[in-house]
Amino acid sequence: MATIEVQRQVLPILGNPNQGARFYNPELPSSEPFVPGHRTCAGCGPSIQYRMTSKAAGDNTILVGPTGCMYVANSSYLCTPYNVPWAHTQIGSAGSFTAGVAAAYEAMIRKGKWKGQFPNIICEAGDGSASDIGLASISGALYRNHDCLIICYDNEQYANTGIQASSRTPYGGMTTFSPPGPLVPEGKKLYPKDLARMMAAGHPHCYVATASVGYPIDLMNKVRKGLNHKGAAYLMVYTPCQKGFVYETPRSIDLGRLVVESGLYPMWEWNPEQRAYDYSFRPASMRPVSEYLKLQGRFGHLHAEHIANLQKFANEQWRMMGVQLPEALLEAADAKNLVNMAAAEEAATVAETV
Amino acid sequence: MSTKDTHIPDWLKVPFAGITPAPTQEKGQDLFPTGNWRSIRPVYRDKLPPCNNACGTNEKIQGYLDLVKRGKYLDAYALIKEDMPFPSVTGRVCYHPCETACNRGKYDEAISIRAVERFLGDLGQALKKDVVKAGKPNGKKVAVVGSGPAGHSAAYQLARLGYAVTILEKSPKAGGLNRGGIPDWVLPQDVLDREIERLVELGITVKTGVEVGKDVSWDDLKKDYDAVVLAVGLTEPNSVRAEGEDKKGVHYGLPFLRDIGMGTSKVKLGARVAVIGGGNTAIDCAREALRQGAVEVTMITVEGNTQEMPASPEDLHDMVEEGVELMHGRAVTAVLGNGSVEALQLHPARFSGAINASPINVDREAAAERFPVDHVIIAVGQHASLAWLPQEFKNERGTIKIDRFGRLGNTNFFAAGDIVQLGSGQPLMVVNAVGDGKRVAFNLDKVIRGESLEPRTIPIDVIFDLNRMNMTYFPHFPRVQQEMLPPTSRRKTQQEVIQAFTEEQAVEEAGRCFSCGTCNACDNCYLVCPEPCIARPERSNGMYKILVDYCKGCRVCIEECPTGCLEGVPELDFDTGVVRMDTAFAISPGLHGRQAEELRNLASRPAKNI
């Protein structure tokens, strides 16, 4: 039987004439695979990410939604906000399901049972699925190099079950599983799992990148790069969660910028051809971590020494990016120069109610 | 909980696959109108940018900068022409209150608005046919007395409204203070000539050499025209009331400049020239004196320092750069010499009040200074010459008495420009006169059409506070500087000192605009909405629409709006477009009800079609 060659989509990379100053981009596609009428919280970060991702991917796309906010809140009452094919899978089987979809389309096209271009296959896994429960299956899909894009929308906790700590929850982040108290004043003692780096190191043939909702054009371009890459790609996107982070809803995009500017979420790409990290992304300014922390109730209980620990962590990330650290950031890593979070008392009441 | 034995109407039962309407790109999901979560609604409400507010004629500055940024120069020129008949002139001479008010000035450097205006004005001058058309003739005749900035502006606006306008100008050339008060190296004559041509192209008759009070009388005006705009300006120079002021070699500022402008000057300046006065005209006179052959020019002011001088700081700086000396805190008490000027007698002096128009206190006890000069130019303001005006319309300031709409009593006579603004607190600048002319033209039109004149009562919201915008979106950029001739070479020529922007410079400078409080279609709200419930059929200023059925009121769009055009309004303020609780258990046929309609008809459909 004659085999038909698989026709793949090539998505153009968006220009960024204003260096991120404004989002307006004449090359933006007009289609909206993600539509309103879903039940995510007001100001939902993962939802912003979902919309931008699907807009960048276009209409010939198949979405896979393992259990998580973007499954539970979006697909209720037998309807979904997706205008493209979408399927739910178990939280642990994100990678295997996605791999199956990709392999099935390749086979169907090869055998002439599906006419048309190979679709963009995107798996939208939460950090619970990607870093804890579904880690093995995602690693498997990446290892076998199926042509798909696996996105971890990283809201740093299990949000739809009521804010529990995941292995991506940052040091000091308060959740119902990591409440601050007299014995563990910082709430969470462990540092977050460096998931994206783990994926890049373990699957060097894959395109791996980190992104943030604070930089929409950059995020869309990374989605397109991942989809254009022939083989598996992995993208980790910072998506603030208003319920879990306890912030005012308007700050969603602001937090997406601040987390990068404070160095807690380094933005980089793994180039599979050169087998090298690309650390060229630089935010407009560098800030101490306290500017990021003070907006969020989940860090309200932190003492000066904990903030200093987080600053040390951020400084290590900056060094890893090859950035010369300004004196102010080195000073901010010393607890003597810091004060406790002012909102500690309010944070305690929030901890009880969550 | 079981629903067994509970009566639930058919149309309220849980929908099921096949019945649930599929979401569409245009509408989203019908089933969950999440708009009822909202307590604050984002609303696009354009505010007035501070530049538009500060401009004497309220040019839509933000609007034309935005158009220039996108390369739509002709549209930008048409927009500027709505309020300003001669952008090529104000683009050179304006004292730019807009740049002083510019919010960018608090951030890094103000936008060079005047330079962009000049770029547009020069573009308009190069056009074969102007974009502005005369209005449909309405058969009314209006005379405009004076062709200075106010008269020019009034005549222009009236012609656009369809009036047959005649300009009466006493000088041999039209242009008024634009020609006679502004030197060639600031405003070349051919630029002004071209703007006067534009007036003629609009169908305006320009009669030069006609002086009101001499060639035409008040009664002639009243008889021959339906309405008259008096924009005669201040023509008579003030004197310093010094002894011997009538000696040969004493000139007055405006006539000195006017004669040079009209080409009728016979003045040959000696090597040493003193200029009396500290205003803009005095500065122009001092700089002109250099170009007329003077070697040493000294400016003598009553003001104690440069800050107190009622002059544009930039012009002052340029003048000092060209080598004019300043002498502060002196008043001329006598002009010495035998027949012609040989020296000035100076005494220390200061203003008795806080403002520069207050009487001068001269300290005659102090020793008099002798200041040797060959010529003196006195530029200490002007006053009106109103002998022809009926007494009832004169006021105590020596100007024309008008009501707040620029009207003389109940007549069809209106007055505009310096002749009414002197002493009113308004700066006597070109752009203020243009604005005055524009407003008076519109008021005149109302009177002719029999409408009542009412002051504007709509409150305006001007953005002065940078916190109302999102400054993250504005990287710091330095202002694009206009090139200038070097001081050494320019002080002897009549060439323009300040050079025009190139196209690239104009676009770059326009791109720095914050667009304070006004939507400039940056797409931020559209892209950051989590729902997404901001619709945009096409990208255009202010064309964004919020689907209120879905907006949850998260206010991300308000926070991320760089211009501050979006604002949050409490939902209770609205009585339209409000989504009440009409989801799952609504009785009224709301959005859920529409779907229930299908459910209700289910029983009548054959099973295989379900």
Short description:
With 354 residues, chain A is α/β, with parallel strands linked by helices. Chain A is built from 13 helices and 8 strands.
Topology:
The complex is a heterodimer of chains A (354) and B (610).
Chain A: H1 45-57, E1 61-66, H2 69-72, E2 86-89, H3 94-110, E3 120-126, H4 127-133, H5 135-143, E4 149-154, H6 195-202, E5 207-212, H7 216-228, E6 233-238, H8 242-245, H9 252-261, E7 269-271, E8 276-278, H10 289-293, H11 304-320, H12 327-332, H13 344-353
Parallel strand pairs in A: 1-2, 1-3, 3-4, 4-6, 5-6
Antiparallel strand pairs in A: 5-7, 7-8
Helix pairs in contact in A: 1-7, 3-5
Chain B: E1 40-44, H1 50-54, H2 61-69, H3 73-80, H4 87-93, H5 97-101, H6 113-126, E2 141-145, H7 149-160, E3 164-169, H8 177-180, H9 189-201, E4 205-208, H10 218-224, E5 227-230, E6 236-237, E7 250-252, H11 253-262, E8 272-276, H12 280-291, E9 296-300, H13 313-321, E10 325-327, E11 330-336, E12 343-351, E13 360-362, E14 369-372, E15 375-378, E16 382-383, E17 413-415, H14 418-421, H15 430-448, H16 487-490, H17 503-510, H18 524-528, E18 534-535, E19 545-546, H19 556-560, E20 566-570, H20 591-600
Parallel strand pairs in B: 2-3, 2-5, 3-4, 5-17, 7-15, 8-9, 8-15, 9-10
Antiparallel strand pairs in B: 1-20, 6-16, 11-12, 12-13, 12-14, 18-19
Helix pairs in contact in B: 2-3, 2-17, 3-6, 4-6, 6-17, 7-15, 11-12
How would you describe this structure to a colleague?
Chain A has a domain at 45-284: 3-Layer(aba) Sandwich (Rossmann fold), CATH 3.40.50.970. An 8-stranded mixed sheet of chain A has the order 2-1-3-4-6-5-7-8, sandwiched between helices. Chain A has helices at residues 45-57, 69-72, 94-110, 127-133, 135-143, 195-202, 216-228, 242-245, 252-261, 289-293, 304-320, 327-332, 344-353, and strands at residues 61-66, 86-89, 120-126, 149-154, 207-212, 233-238, 269-271, 276-278. With 354 residues, chain A is α/β, with parallel strands linked by helices. With 610 residues, chain B is an alpha/beta fold. Chain B has 4 domains: 10-47 and 519-599, 2-Layer Sandwich (Alpha-Beta Plaits), CATH 3.30.70.20; 50-130 and 459-510, Alpha-helical ferredoxin (Fumarate Reductase Iron-sulfur Protein, Chain B, domain 2), CATH 1.10.1060.10; 141-235 and 384-448, FAD/NAD(P)-binding domain (3-Layer(bba) Sandwich); 238-381, FAD/NAD(P)-binding domain (3-Layer(bba) Sandwich), CATH 3.50.50.60. Chain B has 20 helices and 20 strands. Chain B has helices at 50-54, 61-69, 73-80, 87-93, 97-101, 113-126, 149-160, 177-180, 189-201, 218-224, 253-262, 280-291, 313-321, 418-421, 430-448, 487-490, 503-510, 524-528, 556-560, 591-600; strands spanning 40-44, 141-145, 164-169, 205-208, 227-230, 236-237, 250-252, 272-276, 296-300, 325-327, 330-336, 343-351, 360-362, 369-372, 375-378, 382-383, 413-415, 534-535, 545-546, 566-570. Chain B has a 5-stranded parallel sheet with strand order 4-3-2-5-17, sandwiched between helices. A 5-stranded parallel sheet of chain B has the order 7-15-8-9-10. In chain B, strands 11, 12, 13 and 14 form a 4-stranded antiparallel sheet that branches. In chain B, helix 4 packs antiparallel against helix 6 (113-126). Chain B starts with 39 loop residues before the first strand and ends in a 10-residue tail after the last helix. The model of chain B is unreliable at 581-593 (pLDDT under 50).
